Each structure stands twice: as structure tokens, then as C-alpha cells.
Amino acid sequence: MAGPVAVGIVSVPTNFNKKFFKGIKDSKQLTAEERELWFALAQEGKKKKELDFAVSLVSEKVIDRHGISYAIRLGIKRVLKSIRISSTDSQIFLDGGIKAPKEFKHQLTVIKGDEKIPIVSLASICAKVVRDRRMVKLSKKYPQYDFDLHKGYGTLIHRQALQKYGSTELHRQSFLKNLTVGRQV
Questions:
Q1: Per the structure, how many domains does the chain have?
Q2: Which of 49, 79, 94, 176 is the most buried (most CB within 10 A)?
Q3: Per-residue pLDDT tens for 34-53?
């Protein structure tokens, strides 16, 4: 309901040691501490040039203007461009119903891919950690919304804050249409 959408990508070479992924799970099945640990492992792997990853945050303004699907596609384009992978030689795995641009010839979309494919799990973890950190920072500017607790999701605490204080420029207005919300602050 608030904040950007995050799109993550992880790139590994074909000879990557798959044991790295032992014990990884879908980001939603991990605690915040476990996600931070995996994120630190990804950062270490990137520093050692064993893997690469990137996260794109697409703003709530873009979501409201063009829709969440557009924002996710934009995020995908950004992360693919940022790590410069080959559009003809790379195998791309995507989660849910999303697709990479057509020039990426070898792509596979897997429903619940973040539960089934370890590299998708890591990309999801990286995206969630980056987004959650952004929402924690934003909670200092808007302490009454408790973004540090719910990270902008539609929890009871968040809905109550919206009813009491109204929405902010961080809120996805297109997601609030069915809620009774006070003025924008």
C-alpha cells in the first residue's frame, strides 16, 4: 500500500557452486534476520565476483501513473540492463507471471518460482531487503505510520494509521481506492 516495488536479479555463471544455495527459502518464509544473512552472503559473493545482483526500486508514483505491472516490467528492464547479461546466451528465470523483454531468448516464468528455484529465491530476498531498508528509513520521516514495522504492507496497524492520519505521498493511491482514507499529508 505504500512505497516502491522492488525487483531483484541475481546472475551466476554456469560453473557456480550450487551448494551456496543450501537452505535458502522463499523470502516470505524467512525471518528478517535470515533475509539479512542471505543478503550479506550475496554481497560477499558480489565482492568476490562469484555472482552479481541488483535491485531496482520503482516508485509509488510510477505505480499510480502506469500500474503495478508496468512498474514491475520497468524494474525488470532496469536490473537486466544494470548487470549487463547477454540477451541471447543467458537463461532467465522469472517468478510468477512476469516476463523479461523479448530479446532475452531463454526465459522461463515459474509460478511460485521464489519457492522452487534457489536463484529466484535469492533475487527475491535481495529485493525484499533493499525495499524493507528503504521503508525503515522512511519511517523516520513518517513515524506515525510505523513503516519500520509493516514496511508499507496492508496490515491492521497500517490501515488504522491511514484512517487516523490519511495518506502520504508514499502511499500508492491506486491501492487505496477501496479504503476509507482521510486527507493526504
A1: 1
A2: 79
A3: 999 999 999 999 999 999 99
